[in-house]
């Protein structure tokens, strides 16, 4: 059964604009309020990472970005490789530079305890990412 994997995860982000977590922190990607957001600081790369205490099977990612402030064509979904202790690319995510909701279906059968959205660059001149909504759906192993 597919369900939200967010509540059972620990989420970390690469940065927060001017360290202002009270107004633009990571928690605002998950509050179901379309007027709040996570806003990264400037610079590349940026990322959003999830960690679970047990392995999960992620199936899809749903996100809404601020047009002009999303990852470029080289955005990647990565999973943690326990053997090499490094992030490995699972698949690319070709994002549209728009404020519309975007969904990515992940390759079938992925079993992982860590997943990361990796933005090597941004469509923003300063390398910022602004995300209003983020959902990772799947099932527990």
TrEMBL record:
Domain of life: Eukaryota
Species classification: Eukaryota, Metazoa, Ecdysozoa, Arthropoda, Crustacea
Keyword annotations: Receptor
Name of the featured protein: Nuclear receptor 2C2-associated protein
Stored SUPFAM superfamilies: Galactose-binding domain-like
